[in-house]
Automatic annotation (TrEMBL):
Enzyme class: transferase
NCBIfam families the record matches: PRK02406.1
Name of the featured protein: DNA polymerase IV
Biological processes per GO annotation: DNA repair; DNA-templated DNA replication; error-prone translesion synthesis; SOS response
Domain UmuC residue range list: 1-177
Native source organism of the sequence: Fulvivirga imtechensis AK7
Organism placement in taxonomy: Bacteria, Pseudomonadati, Bacteroidota, Cytophagia, Cytophagales
This protein's encoding gene: dinB
A GO MF term: magnesium ion binding
Entry annotation: catalytic residues: 97
């Protein structure tokens, strides 16, 4: 199930005058980025992650809205609660996309009828348009949802997966990005049917392991399960000092380094957080925590001010500090990793570049100067299952 042009739909709920008009949501300056756009704007060749300046050139009459991440998070939670009440197993893969497992329910209900009724319940309860695709696996369901849009539904019966996929363009296959799509086109492959007719060994020879995955998806094969959605997952880090301290600059520097590192772990794990908690333990062993709910994000510069603000509210200047910690919770899967409503393309490119360096050389290779003295950061990483070893402090 996928909420259609989710950000745009949320804005239209509050201002009906936006109906039927080309809408751009994102950074309002020329250096900003399009976070979402209406179908009316897409007719001009506009798409998400496009520089706002170019989008305005393509469609000068478009209405540009900065967007309200808090509103979008709230509406997403409303949809999540409706789904939670209706089905036994679902996975929330982003702020506006859900996989629902109806396996075995045909013994008691008609799966397509149940999904249709759930869709109507969401539309009636939230006012948001939503589409769904029903099939035997995630890949075909996702493609079917895309074909069903806008605001519609589509069922692909078992045994008809290949027939359904074959006439579609190869970039309809999930995981086929711009570069892979161009490589496939260079080989003369434009339709999924062509991949279906190719030996899997040839795809593996050209694209490696990804070639096998692309071939399987093109043939409607996907064994990945629906992972139960849970808001209990969290990622956290703490630091206990050898000597209790009242050095505020040191404390804030370590908190900054912790936040920066955890934010990178979120992005690497394709996660977003909507709840930030700061923990302070004093020399008398009294422990205090404070938390704040925020719009879903994994961007350092959105999380660091929240953490420092919580610390300022917690900190008692008359007591020595023994331990400090940061925790991000209410995690969801999500590709929306940067605050597209405010960030310029330079900021997005900077995050991607830094994360690429960290992936290759270590997660503390690149860091803010204010947190560089935090030589070790203890961390629990739920994406790996076990705490990873501490990395040496590298400076660039």
């Amino acid at each position: 199930m996928d909420l259609d042009t989710f950000f745009v739909s949320c804005e239209r709920l509050t201002d009906r005058r936006l109906e039927g008009k080309p809408i751009l949501i994102g950074g309002v300056s020329d250096r900003g980025v399009v976070a979402s756009c209406s179908y009316e704007a897409r007719k001009f060749g506009i798409h998400s992650a496009m520089p706002m300046k170019l989008a305005r050139q393509l469609c000068p009459e478009a209405i540009v809205i900065k967007g309200n991440a808090s509103t979008y998070s709230k509406k997403s939670e409303e949809v999540t609660e409706i789904i939670r009440e209706w089905v036994p197993l679902f996975e929330k893969t982003s702020i506006d996309e859900f996989y629902i497992d109806l396996s075995g329910m045909d013994r008691f209900f008609n799966g397509f009828k149940l999904a249709s009724e759930l869709r109507e319940k969401i539309i009636d309860g939230t006012g948001l348009p939503i589409s769904f695709g029903l099939s035997e696996n995630k890949t075909v369901s996702k493609v079917a949802t895309g074909e069903a849009k806008p605001n519609n539904k589509l069922k692909v019966d078992h045994g008809f997966e290949k027939i359904f996929l074959s006439p579609l363009a190869v970039n309809k296959i999930p995981m086929v990005g711009e570069k892979t799509y161009q490589s496939l086109r260079d080989l003369g492959i434009r339709k999924i049917m062509t991949i279906q007719q190719m030996p899997v060994e040839l795809m593996e020879k050209v694209f490696g392991k990804n070639g096998v995955t692309i071939w399987e998806k093109a043939n409607g094969i996907d064994r990945s399960p629906v992972v139960p959605y849970s808001e209990r997952k969290s990622i956290s880090t703490e630091r206990t000092f050898d000597r209790d301290t009242i050095d505020v600059i040191k404390l804030k520097g370590i908190l900054l380094a912790m936040t920066e590192n955890l934010a990178f772990q979120l992005r690497r794990g394709q996660k977003l957080t909507s709840c930030v908690t700061v923990k302070v333990r004093y020399s008398d062993f009294n422990t205090h925590t404070l938390q704040s709910r925020i719009p879903y994000t994994s961007a350092d510069h959105m999380l660091i001010p929240t953490v420092l603000n919580l610390f300022n509210r917690l900190y008692n200047k008359r007591l020595l500090v023994r331990l400090i910690g940061v925790r991000f919770s209410h995690l969801v899967n999500g590709g929306y990793q940067i605050n597209l409503f405010e960030d310029a393309t330079e900021m997005i490119n900077l995050y991607q570049a830094m994360d690429k360096v960290r992936d290759k050389y270590g997660d503390r290779t690149v860091m803010r100067a204010a947190g560089i003295e935090a030589k070790t950061i203890s961390r629990f990483n739920p994406f790996k299952g076990e705490p990873p070893p501490l990395l040496p402090n590298r400076r660039m």
